[in-house]
Amino acid sequence: MPLRLSHTSYADLLLGISIWRLVSKVQAFTRRDYFVGKGVAMTTSVCVGTVFALMLISTLVLAQTRLSPIDKGERIYQRNCLRCHGAALDGKGSDASSLTVPPTNFHTYLSRLKDDIEFEKTIKQGKRFIGMHNWEDTLTDEQVRDLITYIRSAAPHMKVKP
Ligand code: HEC
């Protein structure tokens, strides 16, 4: 799996690096003064070093698991929706040609006019007698929200004045 970093993960990494640098300074300090016995200083620095190495590793692991809503939505989309709605969200997925009613192209004016509540309703309840299933039992509320966030990032909602 490629390493994917969201904005929050970068913040984590930067925090990790600055803590690490601070610790190196503390290590240098303990080596110089207070601890007379060299052994004590060595043990302290090895312990502190190990703890922070572990922290840095866990930060990296967390960075991989903590994805932004758009990234999470994209993954769910690729798994469930792409075959009909297409990789470019243009309704040209591989299964589209077998359907009588073509899957929505999310870039169209009419689709972009629909608000999030309408999208949520269609995703959860589906559309009767055409290809769009209901996903209420398969996806959680949060997953549906992430999906809408992802679709909106590629095809933003268009508000019109009444
Ligand atoms: C088997 C094909 C198929 C799959 C899989 C599928 N859809 Fe659809 N989808 C359709 C069809 C067909 C329509 C209806 C088009 C119409 O009414 O003109 C539709 C309509 C929609 C609409 C309404 C859009 C609008 O502007 O009215 C949304 C939102 C939507 N799908 C989201 C999803 C999401 C999210 C997934 C994945 C969880 C998904 N669809 C999976 C075929 C599919």
Notes on the protein architecture:
With 162 residues, the protein is mainly alpha-helical. It has 2 domains: 59 residues; 86 residues, Orthogonal Bundle (Cytochrome Bc1 Complex, Chain D, domain 2), CATH 1.10.760. It has 7 helices and no strands. The longest helix has 28 residues.
Task: Find the structural class using helix and strand composition.
Answer: mainly alpha
What share of residues is helical? 55-70%
Topology order in helix (H) and strand (E) letters = HHHHHHH
CATH topology of the largest domain: Cytochrome Bc1 Complex, Chain D, domain 2
Give the helices and strands, then pairings.
Blueprint: H1 7-32, H2 38-65, H3 69-80, H4 82-85, H5 109-113, H6 116-125, H7 141-154
Heme C (HEC) binds next to helix 4 and helix 6.
Could you write a compact summary of the structure shown?
The chain is mainly alpha-helical and about 160 residues long.
Main features:
162 residues, mainly alpha, Cytochrome Bc1 Complex, Chain D, domain 2, 2 domains, 7 helices, binds heme C
